[in-house]
Amino acid sequence: MAIRYEIYLRTDENMEPLTEQRAISALRAAGFEPVEGKLGQLDLGHGKLAAAVYSGSDWDAAIAAAPAEAVTTSDDRAMPIAGINLFFPLGLPDAEGDTAVGRVLAVASALGVAAYDPQLGSLVSGADHERIVNAWRQSHDFQFDIAGNTDLGAGAPTPAYHSRTTIPSRYKLMAIIALAILLVIMMVRSCVERWIEHDMYEAPETTDTPDTPNTSRSK
Which contiguous run of DSSP H or E holds residue 87? Predict the structure, then answer.
């Protein structure tokens, strides 16, 4: 299974209840197609942006099913759901990753729900579009440096962000640290050698004695 980038859509008590029916309508408006086992998916070209129901924990499910929150209908799609999980592969060209992020944020805005990016560890909105795209790229870079293109998806990463000819960031940092240590060692060694040389070959001190006058008299 491809390693994915995920964004979660969630509601709270201050928001309009989210139902599967509302979710599907918003997803269809954003170009998602129906697919078995999910709310829908969008073909990006080298991968798919998929949307699935988040059922929540047992406690969340109990709250959603409480009489005060229940919707009186026999259609299961009209029952409240805890949220939507959206995900797409890390291995996509830039344009497709940008499209995926844009569609997720559009769905969140249409539904009036909160969007949470677990990679960033914060709530996000349309103003965070570029920040999310950058986090997606960094996630791909991290996985690519560790295991290459394994499980990153069918897409070909753009050379600007992924190339085996480039040195991973962690190796660059290690090289800088090693160079700094080497410079310190060379400086200390040079100082020690100069001190030893000065101590061993220092010229002895000379004391100038005044000429002693000849006090003897010829007789």
Answer: strand 83-89
| SS3 of residue 40 by DSSP | strand
- Going by the DSSP 8-state scheme, the letter that residue 19 receives in this structure is B
| Position 100, amino acid | A
pLDDT tens digit sequence for 52-78: 999 775 444 444 444 434 344 446 667
- Residue 48 and residue 178: Cα distance in Å, rounded? 43
Residue 88 CA to residue 9 CA, distance in Å, equals 14
- Split at pLDDT 50, 70, 90, the class of 147 is low
- Cβ 143 vs Cβ 152: under 8 Å: yes
What value, to the nearest 5°, has the Cα angle with vertex 162 and ends 98 and 32?
25
**pTM exceeds cut of 0.70:** no
